[in-house]
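[agent] plan:
  1. take the single chain provided in the ticket
  2. run structure prediction with default settings
  3. attach structure tokens to the ticket
  4. add a short note for the reviewer (M.T.)
[agent] executing step 1
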Amino acid sequence: MITKIHPHPCLDHLIDYYWIEKKGSYKTKVLPDGSLSIIFNIGGEIGITDTDGNENMYSADLIIGTQKKYFILEMKEDANVVGVKFKQGEAYHFLKKPMLQFTDKIVKLNDIFNTDTNSLCEVLVKAQNEDEIRKILNYFFFINVESLICDSKIVDSVIQKVNVSKSALLIKDLCESENISNKHLISLFNKKVDISPKLLYRINKFKKVIELLQDNTNINWSQIAYECHYYDQAHLINEFKNFSGVSPNEYLKNKKANGLYIEVV
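[agent] step 2 finished; step 3 output follows
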């Protein structure tokens, strides 16, 4: 029978659940619930019979539009499908089409959606368990869903964490904490911040050095390197030159070099 899987929390406002069915043979009556579904067919055929008794067989990926009446879904013996149940009114963010054109209709996904889903199905068929299927679908919808509200929240959360705190920061830890891939995190940053989280972290470390230099009269370079999570003093100096064009000592002389005032704004 059908197994339901919860989507990523950032997709929770959009998708009710994912579902899977592998190599089962049965018929089920699907009642109307005011929402649209997508079926990724990764093996075999499925049959759909409408209330008038008309049956059609499908082997393609399908959009099951919002139905006003029930229909019969028949899983054949070799059927292997993964479904997506959208929440009411939320499929628009994925399909980017007027939803009225799908009402009481069943259409091939590739006829409507301009992204080839064959590669997605190839990955899904190799998935070993429910968790892998969940991750694959989460990634697919993160890429293809327009204007996710949670994108800004993720970026804002990461920006707060990409500072010089008490411990060194690894970008992979940020990705794990937000449950997204490094590629997706960079993509979000490119849209909102225009630089990568790694570069932002480096800049924040540099800014922290500036703050410490302003507050200290007796400079201990090794201590500053440690507090700002540089490997050593040489690493600090190289990064400082990279961002300011001068060495820390040149900066300290009068915070002016080559005729240019140097400050962090």
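[agent] step 4 note for reviewer: The longest strand covers residues 15-22.
[agent] ticket updated
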